[in-house]
């Protein structure tokens, strides 16, 4: 039998300070990546019946920050302000970051955004609705899985349940 060794990797309060945690994941090299927001997230809206729905865009600009670990050291990168409500993050390369909004308003809605090494927006493209998870491989392949509203919804990409895209 193999021994599994666990070790303390991160204290969120130390890394995030007073920022709001959006998501925690690992990149293709298994390095931890955290996405935070400087304000309370504006991710939900309610209709007159009190039913809650995801908001694709915030009413005010979002100030996202990426926190990432290399070796034992933590680094951060502030992104260009955006109205987008991102749910997933992955490094595509040493110089680019992929952020994805899990919901979209159709096949032409650009809900995947690539940011550069200085936090600048580089490009965007549609990846469909009902996104469950996003993972990028070492060779920059983007794997996206979809939950039921993506698989059975109106988005062409989501119907397969799982897609692989290039960068």
For this structure, the quaternary state is single chain
Low-pLDDT stretches: none
Count of alpha and pi helical runs? 2
Give the termini separation. Answer: 40 Å
What structural category do the secondary elements indicate? mainly beta
**Average pLDDT taken over every residue:** 93
Largest sheet composition: 4 strands, antiparallel
What is the gyration radius calculated from CA atoms? 16 Å
Task: Describe the 3D structure.
This protein has 167 residues and is mainly β. The chain is built from two helices and 15 strands. It has helices at 12-16, 148-151, and strands at residues 20-26, 32-37, 44-46, 52-54, 57-62, 64-70, 73-78, 82-84, 88-91, 97-100, 112-115, 121-125, 131-136, 142-146, 162-165. The strands form five sheets. Strands 1-2-6-7 form a four-stranded antiparallel β-sheet. It has a four-stranded antiparallel β-sheet with strand order 9-10-11-12, with no helix packed on it. The protein has a three-stranded antiparallel β-sheet with strand order 13-14-15. The model has no long low-confidence stretch (mean pLDDT 93).
């Amino acid at each position: 039998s193999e021994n599994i060794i666990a070790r303390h990797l991160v204290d969120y309060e130390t890394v995030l300070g007073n920022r709001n945690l959006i998501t925690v994941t690992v990149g293709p090299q298994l390095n931890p990546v955290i996405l935070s927001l400087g304000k309370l997230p504006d991710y939900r809206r309610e209709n007159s019946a009190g039913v809650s729905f995801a908001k694709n865009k915030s009413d005010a600009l979002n100030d996202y920050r990426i926190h990432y670990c290399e070796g034992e050291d933590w680094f951060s990168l502030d992104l260009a302000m955006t109205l987008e409500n991102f749910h997933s993050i992955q490094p595509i390369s040493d110089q680019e970051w992929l952020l994805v909004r899990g919901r979209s308003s159709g096949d032409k809605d650009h809900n995947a955004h690539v940011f550069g090494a200085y936090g600048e927006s580089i490009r965007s493209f549609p990846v469909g609705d009902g996104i469950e998870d996003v993972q990028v491989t070492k060779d920059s392949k983007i794997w996206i899985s979809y939950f039921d509203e993506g698989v059975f919804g109106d988005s062409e990409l989501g119907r397969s349940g799982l897609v692989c895209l290039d960068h």
